Amino acid sequence: MEQEKVHVRLLIFAGCILLWITAVFGRVAYIQLFCHADYLKKALRQQVHSIEMYPKRGVIFDRKGHPLAMSVPVKSAFAMPGEIKDRALAARLLSGALGISAEEIRDKMDSGPSFIWAKRKLTPEAAEAVESLNLKGVYLQEENKRFYPKRDLAAHVLGFVDVDEKGLGGIEREYDGAIRGKAEKIVVLSDGRQQVLSAGEAQNDRGANVTLTIDEKVQYIAERELEAAIEKTHAPAGTVIVQDPNTGAILALANWPKFNPNAADSVPAERRENRAISQIYEPGSTFKLITLAAAFDQNLIRADEVFNCENGSVTVAGHLIHDHKKYGMLTVADILANSSDVGAIKISLRLGSQKFYEYIKAFGFGTPTGIDLPWESRGLVNRLEHWGSYSIASVSMGQEVGVTPLQMITAVSAIANGGMLYKPHVVEEMSRGETALPIEGASTLTAPKRIIRPETAATLRQLMEGVVLHGTGKKARLDGWTVGGKTGTAQKIDPSTGKYSATNVIASFSGFVPINNPAVTILVSIDSPGGYPHGGGDVAAPVFKRIAEQILPYLDVARDVPTSPQLVAASFHKNSDTSDDSLDDLSPIVFNEQPDTTQPYSAKPQAIKEKPPKSPEVLMAADEGGDIAIPDFSGKTMREVSESCMRLGLNPVLIGTSVAVQQSPAAGAKVRRGTKMTVEFGDTQVHASKSK
User: What pLDDT score does 204 carry?
Assistant: First the structure.
């Protein structure tokens, strides 16, 4: 009996053991077969930590290959709080090394037990200090930091990035995807006690390099002269743009105020605003170019046609408009040269609202230009059905319409190049290593669009030269180059009264050089200059002159008129005192061939060395009473024709592109000095087939 009880107990015990073993193995089987994925995820979360890292951003170069933005390697400090026994002590030690409060570091440690950034993008001194602490659970990881070696040069074009090297402005934002490259994760492995076992490194390719149309020396000149004008006039803001009228390429884009993109987060947002593409303003008298362009293109006016400007006043739709001077009878050429509001209004009334509106839109106003920079404004052009009875008068003199500086210079460039509207752009090419990459997005170049006839553009160029020679733009006149331009003095609205202010204006000058083969178009806009006179001819035109006389020799633009002996003599006897900051200083600039990439390069003024002698052809023509034999220009380039005409003392009017195919007067004709020489350029084969 007793033996049976023992046997039963053994069976019960064995059954319990078997049941326990079955439960254990069942649980193991359940975990392995059904819960494997969940537990694997938990293990990975505890043992594997990933840090998203981007490759080295591409370099941004100017058009000559000088670096304007690059990325440099730096150290960042991170911590694994699970490894740190005394977090309060570690926070105090790191506080001294990193320059941030111990409380901030401690809060970070308490918020994330597995991984936290202590501080990113450390200076070499801070990284060395952290490394010397030799704290368990604190590590250094290599990252890249964006660096702008020329500091504030072209800052509004380049833009800036955040701590993760994400583009937040300018080219850095517009092409962030290409410049930044694709992200890759660095894996940090740790054991159950949160001790780091290993850390990987990012192996992905660097971002694409970008070459801009910006020329750092032209940009430097533009920024320096703008700053000098701002200092002299005490204006709060201003813009200068230099453009190649034959391609739309932007050679310089300068704004004031400016900022240093190396410390972009330390300045107010308004300093980072790219006023050249976002500021909307009433252009004032510079818009008279559009008024005259439309009327000329419709064959409604002639340059020598006389208008009665009615002693400086005219009434339109019950509104009495006064001119800035009491003009009487003026030719169309003089209306532009003297910037007569009454004359411009009378021309616009002959043109009519419908046609005027069509030309305004054709010139690109009221529409973004499509430049490859973010946050461009479209300007403000009211729909035609919203025009009032007085609107045509207002718009003809640059009121009741809003433009951006970029829109204005693009329109002037169209007049300069013969009537073709080009899309402005700042990106020349993109590459990775030796491989060229397609440029996608906003900067994709489109074919230029003809907006006025070549003859219209040629007439306007001659009239714009008159503005500089004997009109409101005399202070833009250059020694050795012909200049065409237009002044503008646009009254700003006084917020307190809602009416136009008598003192706050936007003074501007837009022009190109040389007249018949323009190499550059330059716009200068100064917002609310102090003092008086404060018009575009007194404030902006001298800045145009200063910029043009420095960049033209640098760009190797041939002179098209003889150098003035008076100005050459003046340069010989110029006072050696260079403390005068006058904007009328004629001294050109000589650059170092290899500017320091870490500091803005310097420029030294240098006087003109010698007076170029007059050519034998000019002297001979003067001796013979002005009888000049016209040469055969067939097959010659625009530069060759222009230089030959200048030597002979002829006044060239050049139409078209490529090589000379037709001329008037014909070759061999005898003319007097100063005669207008019209030369048409085009494809010789096309012209020959047309002749047949």
Answer: 55
pLDDT at 207: 87
Q: Which fold has domain 218-554?
A: Beta-lactamase (3.40.710)
Tell me the chain's radius of gyration from C-alpha atoms.
35
In the block, tokens 């054709």 appear at: 362
Task: Give residue for tokens 């592109």.
Answer: 657
Q: Which has the higher per-residue pLDDT, 287 or 34?
A: 287
CA-to-CA dists, residue 291 to 284, 343, 359, 396, angstroms:
12, 11, 9, 6
The residues that bridge with 679 in the sheet, in sequence order, are 654, 663
> Can you give the pLDDT at residue 571?
39
Q: How far apart are CA 213 and CA 60, in angstroms?
A: 11
Burial 214-248 (b: 16+ CB within 10 A, else e): bbbbbbbbbbbbbbbbbebbebebbbbbbbbbbbb
Whether residue 656 contacts residue 643, with contact meaning beta carbons closer than 8 Å, is answered with no
pLDDT score for 185: 60
Distance of alpha carbon 463 from alpha carbon 605, whole angstroms: 33
**In angstroms, rounded to a whole number, what is the distance separating the alpha carbons of residues 557 and 512?**
12
CB neighbour burial string for 284-311, b if at least 16 within 10 angstroms, e if fewer:
bbbbbbbbbbbbbbbeebebeeebebbe
Q: What is the DSSP letter of 249?
A: B
Q: Are 75 and 139 a contacting pair, CB within 8 Å?
A: no
CA distance 108 to 431: 41
CATH architecture observed for domain 54-153: Alpha-Beta Complex (3.90)
Are the C-beta atoms of residues 572 and 538 closer than 8 Å to each other? Answer: no
Q: How many helices (H) and strands (E) does the chain have?
A: 22, 28
CB 139 within 8 A of CB 122: no
DSSP letter, residue 569: H
For the entire predicted model, the pTM comes to 0.74
- Looking at residue 307, its pLDDT comes to 96
How far, in Å, CA of 253 to CA of 68, rounded?
14
Count of residues making up the chain: 692
Sign of CA dihedral 194, 195, 198, 200: positive
Q: Which amino acid is at 618?
A: V
Mean pLDDT taken over the chain: 83
The confidence score (pLDDT) of residue 187 equals 57
Cα 451 to chain centroid, rounded: 24
Taking the mean position of all CA atoms in its chain, how far away is CA 240?
A: 9
CA–CA distance, 389 with 391 (Å, rounded to integer): 6
Distances from the Cα of 680 to the Cα of 455, 636, 638, angstroms: 10, 11, 9
Nearest Cα to Cα of residue 78 among 127, 8, 30 = 127
Q: How far is CA 275 from the centre of its chain?
A: 10
Tens of pLDDT, residue by residue over 641-670, are 877 876 787 777 767 667 888 888 889 888
* 647 C-beta neighbours (distance < 10 Å), count: 15
Every domain of the chain and the residues it spans? 54-153, 218-554, 628-691
User: Is 412 a residue whose pLDDT tops 90?
Assistant: yes
Question: Taking a C-beta distance cutoff of 8 angstroms, is the pair 373, 365 a contact?
Answer: no
**C-alpha 372: how far from chain center:** 9
CA atoms within 13 A on the CB side of 636: 16
Q: Return the minimum-mean-pLDDT range out of 77-91, 295-309, 375-389.
A: 77-91
Tokens of 557: 């633009």
- CA 589 – CA 111 distance, rounded (Å): 59
Percent of the chain topping pLDDT 90: 53
**pLDDT at residue 566, as a whole number:** 55
- Report pLDDT for 28: 73
Which range has the top average pLDDT, 308-322, 507-521, 559-573? 507-521
628-691 CATH, one of 2.60.120.650, 3.40.430.10, 3.30.10.20, 3.20.20.140: 3.30.10.20
Instruction: Report d(CA 424, CA 444) in Å as an integer.
Output: 10
Q: Which two tokens stand for residue 150?
A: 């020329």
pLDDT mean over 308-329: 92
